[in-house]
Amino acid sequence: MEPAEIFVQAALKSWNIQLKRADAFFDTISDEGLQQEIAPGKNRLIYLMGHLIAVNDSMTSLFGQGERSFEHLDDAFVKNPDRSGLPMPDAASLREDWRKAKSILTANFAALSPADWMSRHTAMTDEDFAKEPSRNKLSVLLNRTNHMAYHIGQMVLVKGKS
Amino acid sequence: MEPAEIFVQAALKSWNIQLKRADAFFDTISDEGLQQEIAPGKNRLIYLMGHLIAVNDSMTSLFGQGERSFEHLDDAFVKNPDRSGLPMPDAASLREDWRKAKSILTANFAALSPADWMSRHTAMTDEDFAKEPSRNKLSVLLNRTNHMAYHIGQMVLVKGKS
Per-residue pLDDT tens for B97-154? Predict the structure, then answer.
């Protein structure tokens, strides 16, 4: 295997570890349980679920792989804090979105070659990219992986909450 | 730049983003503030500081770059939960350890070539590594980066706590 191919594999493995962890977590939480706050006065689980769907989904357009499927979630789950009063889908429909987002991204990622991962994302100009070639699609994936880990660290706090 | 070099640069950038974020966070917290819990009944900030020092430090031996400097923190901060009753260094000395760990790792990482990052870590046998070449030093760095993000997500919850 080529070095670049091995690095891509390592990055995708790291992404998949976090994705499975979030997945397994949401599976253990009931729809009512999603209304729990991660800590007093902080975000509810349902907000973080919508937040992760929308933020992860942004990789579709950033990678030039088509239109986003969940841009309509940005208002309630990204651009505004929890309890903004903006309409949110119910838990069952959000779970369905989570599954769809996961399968779209998995298919998208599988379609990228190491050279594609090395290429710029759509939010970078050619000029900026020439100066900083490490700001490529792979770096977006690494950031999104950290972002998911960051929120998983918060979500697990509801476990064993008295 | 070679593809492998660009990938290493992206992974190190991702690590440095999280490291700076933890750094900036600890700088805003007083020694007394480190006694705060991230959420009621959960880990204290001082525990997470020691935990991150010890877990990050483990990369020194995993990468074959010498003996660990902070293995003595494992008992109180990794192998046992917070409030185990085991002796902990005071906040000032832990902050000093944090700075040292950071500078040791930064120097260690700078000494690794892309080929080094591709090579196996010391907890892998040659046989296992032949089967899974993506379980290399870079994959350890990615996991440690996610681990740090996970705990940063928890630490920031003390901000604006009523």
Answer: 999 999 999 999 999 999 999 999 988 899 999 998 888 999 999 999 999 999 999 9
CA-nearest of B27, B47, B28, B50 to B36 is B47
Question: Is-contact B56 B105, C-beta < 8 A?
Answer: yes
Class for the domain spanning A17-113+145-158 = mainly alpha
Instruction: Give this complex's ipTM.
Output: 0.95
pLDDT tens figures, A117-161: 999 998 889 999 999 888 899 999 999 999 999 999 999 999 865
Mutual orientation of helices B3-27 and A137-155 as an angle, nearest 10°? 40
Q: Is the CATH code 1.20.120.450 the one for domain B3-158?
A: yes
Q: Where do runs of H (alpha helix) occur along A29-136?
A: 45-62, 74, 91-110, 114-118, 126-131
In chain B, residues with a C-beta closer than 8 Å to the C-beta of A11 are: 7, 11, 142
* Inter-chain touch A152–B150, beta carbons under 8 Å: yes
- Scanning every residue of chain A, which has its alpha carbon at the shortest distance from the alpha carbon of B117? A7
Contacts of A117 (CB under 8 A, 6+ apart): A4, A8, A11, A136, A137, A138, A141
Domain ranges in chain B? 3-158
